[in-house]
Structures are given as C-alpha cells and as structure tokens.
TrEMBL record:
Transmembrane segments: 12-30, 42-59, 71-88
Family membership noted in the UniProt record: Belongs to the MgtC/SapB family.
Keyword Transmembrane helix tagged: yes
Mode of membrane association: Multi-pass membrane protein
Cellular component aspect of the GO annotation: plasma membrane
Primary location group: membrane
Name assigned to this protein: Protein MgtC
Keyword set includes Transferase: no
Domain MgtC/SapB/SrpB/YhiD N-terminal: 19-139
Localization per record: Cell inner membrane; Cell membrane
Keyword annotations of the record: Cell inner membrane, Cell membrane, Membrane, Transmembrane, Transmembrane helix
Annotated ranges, domain MgtC-like C-terminal: 156-232
Functional description taken from the UniProt entry: Virulence factor required for growth in low Mg(2+) medium and for intramacrophage survival. May be involved in regulating membrane potential by activating Na(+)/K(+)-ATPase.
C-alpha cells in the first residue's frame, strides 16, 4: 500500500502539532468573534486557520520551504475572496471590514502554525485578540468626539423630495443653489418614492463642508412650493 510506504511517524506528529496549534489558536480568535455575534464566528475562524496550516504544511513536506512560501501567497489571495463575502454595503455604510480582517489574520496564524512557527502563531493570536478587545474602549471614546464637519473627509449628499412633475426644475434649482454656495455637485440621482413622488440625491464633490451653509441650502429648498422635504447627510470614506 502506498500509505504504508510513504507514512513517516515524526513528520506525521509534526503535522499533528501544527494543525492542533492552528485549531486551538483559531478557536481563541473565533470565540471572541462568536461572542460578539459576528458573521464569521468560531467555526469559520477555526476552519480558516486549520485550512491555511494544512496547505502550508503539505507544501513544506512535499517540496520544501520554497513551495511553502508560494502556497502562503496563494492563501493570502484566497482569503481575500473569502473576506469579500462577509463585507456588506448598506447605503453609504460598509459593514464587515473588521470581520474580514480577522479572517485574514486567522489565515496568517494558520500559516505560521503550518511552518512550525508555533510561538509566532501564538504571539499573532495575542495581537489579534488585543486588537478586537482592548482597542474597543478607545474606539468608543473616539466615536463620542464630535465631528468637525469642516475638517472631516467624507462624502456628503443633499436629498430633496419633490413631485415627479416638478423634478426637472427642482433638480436644476438644487444644483444651482449648491454651486452658488461653492459646493459643486459630482453626481445626481433620482429615485422613485411613490406614485407621484421622487427623491433627488445630489452628491457633492467637496469632502468637507460648513454645516451652516448646507443648512441654508436645504432651508431654501424646503421653502419652495413643490418641495416636500430637504435634508443632507455625510458619511466618512473609511
């Protein structure tokens, strides 16, 4: 049997240790993700870590270090596709970037374990857990700091609700008022909001605004007879 001829006890034990280390460390990372009810939780992170370790260990045993390095590069690109699956775009907001980054790190932990760098894999796990837990209070503090709209780099949209019949005139008026306030419009979209209502969404070229100036534009638009409402909002690019 081919298995009997190729089986070697010590390399097998080495693979067992690598996969066990990847399983344990992936469990630590995944448990934190599972506790926070993220899309990629315990099982996903464990499988990513173990899978990366298995591919790297297999390449190293068959063809040596050079091929192991090549496989690691494929693992990195492959995890990129997997991470893209957990990233979701909701309007102007993007969710899942942290989860995708954690999967990427789980693959790195597995790759370290697969090359028998168990200590390095454990150290990386500590840093991943620290990034997802210890930095959370700092993130909360930063998020509570009021944003200076004049300094923040963001994407701004001005939204106007009007009738379908008055849409062309109100769209031109909105663009005119924004340009008079030195806020050129990069794009304009018109979305149906009912049988006879449409929403005009003007995306500004500017990445920083003066709230009072934009408020003045929306107030002017609301005073128009054919305008039901006028608002504006901003979202950071990151």
């Amino acid at each position: 049997m081919q298995f009997v001829r190729t089986f070697e006890l010590y390399p097998f034990l080495d693979t067992t240790i690598s996969l066990a280390a990847a399983f344990l460390l992936g469990t630590l990372i995944g448990a934190e993700r599972q506790y926070r009810q993220r899309t990629a939780g315990l099982r996903t992170n464990v499988l990513v870590a173990v899978g990366a370790a298995a591919f790297v260990d297999l390449a190293q045993r068959i063809a040596g270090t050079t091929e192991a390095v090549r496989v690691i590069s494929y693992v990195v690109s492959g995890i990129g596709f997997l991470g893209a699956g957990v990233i979701m775009k909701e309007g102007m907001n993007v969710r899942g970037l942290n989860t995708a980054a954690t999967l990427w790190c789980s693959a790195a932990v597995g790759a370290c374990a697969g090359t028998d760098m168990i200590a390095e894999a454990a150290l990386l796990t500590v840093f991943v857990l620290a990034g997802n837990t210890l930095l959370r209070p700092l993130v909360n503090v930063i998020n509570r700091i009021p944003i200076n709209e004049q300094a923040a780099e963001a994407t701004y949209e001005v939204k106007v609700m009007t009738s379908r019949e008055a849409m062309p005139e109100m769209r031109d008026l909105l663009i005119e008022r924004l340009e008079e306030a030195d806020y050129p419009v990069g794009d304009v979209e018109v979305t149906d909001r009912g049988a006879d209502s449409v929403e005009i969404i003007a995306t500004l070229v500017s990445t920083a605004v003066d709230p009072e100036e934009i408020d003045a534009v929306t107030s002017y638009m609301e005073d128009q007879r054919d305008i039901a409402s006028a608002t504006w909002e901003g979202s950071t690019k990151d």
